[in-house]
Amino acid sequence: MKEKMGTTGLIFNEPLLWEKGSPGRMGVSLPRRDVDEAPLDPALVGDGPDFPDLSELDVVRHFTKLSQWNFGVDSGMYPLGSCTMKYNPKTNERQASLPGFAGAHPLLPEGLSQGLLALMHDLAADLGEITGLPAVTLQPAAGSQGELTGMLIFSAYHKHKGRPRSKVLIPDTAHGTNPASAALCGFKAVAVQSGPKGILQPETVASLMDADTAGIMITNPNTLGLFEDNIRQVAAIVHAKGGLVYGDGANMNAIMGVVNVGDLGVDVLHLNLHKTFSTPHGGGGPGAGAVCVNRELEPFLPVPRVVKDGEGFHLDENHPLSVGKVHAFYGNVAS
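Structure (tokenized):
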């Protein structure tokens, strides 16, 4: 890296290993050969691999410097809403690594899993109370799979009503994965242009909402960081045409504990537990994308479901309208 890339910010002008090396340097001491030397066939390997000649210290220093390029909450402030950069307290990692969690086998019988089942049951109840959407599944492994689960519920609901629909409205300020989630469930994504203030306009939604539209996917606050002030009017328009309202929970940090999402007219909501609730997460996983729905949509939630039966808990799969499993066993717990 001979060219200078800049003078400010996260710049580490670390040279390439070939620029650091010198002929004859070696970082290891190999044992004496006990076989005869056999030259490589030039036709197969050419001149051989071009390895740099480096001392052990050169190698250690090089990769230590490269490791300093990894930016995290321990080394600075990261304001963007990326799940891998949220501040997840390190004590959470300790709790997640307790033997009762980390050592639980997914095929343990229910009688030996009562602690885990109780925690899942109570967590689902808490999330339902927080959001105002009382029926909850913890199965989805991430927010993206939560979206997929929500769209599966949209599809199952309309089919059960005897009127399958083919389109879903998606604002231009919605979470970027929304169109893909709708498409994976067979829906056509219909773009909804936001108004001059960067939020949805009820009249625009009304012009697009028809009897062939399953509903709308809304991110609130949206990806511009703006609150959808007209969300109740939008929800009323969608509901009047028999549609459903999906709430993308990517930005729930801004409204959790302040807004009852169910009262806004949202029917299905996913929560990124690794964002808003500081579930241990980083480097691509594991995430957790709980999905909360209203009572009318509860029959369509994935199975199995944790049910309290007297003093104990068990997994119940007897839900004929369910969209089925969306994760092996019961999500990221003991799987």
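The chain has a mean pLDDT of 87. The beta strands are 135-137, 167-171, 188-192, 213-219, 244-248, 268-272, 289-293, 305-309, 312-316.
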